[in-house]
Write a structure and sequence with these properties.
5 strands, disordered N terminus, 8 helices, 11% strand, five-stranded mixed beta sheet, alpha/beta
Length: 238
C-alpha cells in the first residue's frame, strides 16, 4: 500500500478509505500521499564528483513528499491497515471521521501524508511524532514536530487541530492565508457592486476567480458560489 519515498498517490476521488469519498453534497476531497518512514541510505561523495550529497534530512523530506516550492506544513496520519486487529479497527473509524467536507477544505492548506505504520521503522515513527497506534503529527520543513495528537473522534476536532496549529506554529503562512481570504472578500464585494450596475459579465469574472480557488475555508467562498450560480442563471435567461 505505502510507497515510501515515491511519487505519492492521489486519492482525491477515491472510495473514502481515508476520507477521499463522500456523498453527493461533497465538493471537496482530500488528496492523500503515501509514505513509509525507513532509515535513510548512507550516501557519501565520490572523489572528484561535484554532485551535491543527498543528506539524511533531504531523504526524509523526500519520503514525506516535501518540496522547497510548497510552503504547506505536512500533516502525518500514522495509519494501520484496516482489519489488522484493534489498531486497524481504530484506523477505520478515524478514516470515516476524515471523510468530511470541512476537513477536506482545511486539508488543502497542508500536505496530507498517510504513513504506513507496519512498513515504517519504530524509532523513526516516534521521532516524527507517532503515538501509540493510529495518531497524527504536524511537521514543518525543518522536520520538526510542531504538534501531535491521538485519534480525533469528530470532524470538528480534526478541523480544530488543523486550524489551531496552523495559526500558532506557521504564522507567516497563516498570514498569507488571511491575505488571500481578504482578497476573496474584496472580489466578492466588487462583484456585488458590478451586478448592481448590471455589468453581469464582469461580476461573473470576479465570482469565478473566488469559486475556482482551492481556499474554501471562509464564508466568502460559499457566498461567491451561490452568487455565481444565481447570476449565471440570470445571464443565461437574458
Amino acid at each position: 500500500m505505502s510507497v515510501g519515498g515515491g511519487s505519492g498517490v492521489s486519492t482525491g476521488g477515491g472510495a473514502g478509505r481515508r476520507g477521499g469519498g463522500g456523498g453527493s453534497a461533497r465538493s471537496t476531497h482530500i488528496t492523500w500521499l503515501e509514505a513509509a518512514i525507513t532509515p535513510p541510505a548512507a550516501i557519501t561523495a565520490k572523489e572528484g564528483d561535484d554532485t551535491p550529497v543527498i543528506t539524511e534530512a533531504d531523504q526524509f523530506r523526500r519520503m514525506l513528499h516535501m518540496n522547497d516550492w510548497d510552503p504547506r506544513p505536512t500533516f502525518l496520519y500514522f495509519h494501520v491497515e484496516h482489519g489488522e486487529g484493534p489498531a486497524g479497527d481504530k484506523s477505520e473509524e478515524q478514516c470515516r471521521v476524515m471523510d468530511d467536507e470541512t476537513v477536506a477544505r482545511w486539508s488543502h492548506l497542508y500536505t496530507f501524508v498517510e504513513v504506513d505504520i507496519d512498513k515504517s521503522n519504530a524509532k523513526l515513527l516516534e521521532r516524527f511524532g507517532a503515538g501509540n497506534g493510529p495518531s497524527f503529527a504536524i511537521v514543518n520543513s525543518d522536520l520538526e514536530v510542531m504538534a501531535q495528537s491521538p485519534l480525533l473522534t469528530t470532524p470538528k476536532k480534526v478541523v480544530s487541530f488543523l486550524k489551531t496549529n496552523l495559526k500558532s506554529g506557521f504564522k507567516d503562512y497563516w498570514k498569507n492565508v488571511e491575505e488571500r481570504i481578504s482578497e476573496q472578500k474584496t472580489l466578492l464585494r466588487e462583484a456585488k457592486a458590478l451586478e448592481k450596475k448590471k455589468e453581469f459579465d464582469r461580476a461573473l469574472t470576479r465570482l469565478q476567480e473566488v469559486a475556482s480557488s482551492n481556499l474554501k475555508i471562509a464564508p466568502h467562498w460559499e457566498e461567491a458560489m451561490r452568487d455565481m450560480q444565481r447570476l449565471q442563471a440570470k445571464v443565461n435567461g437574458r
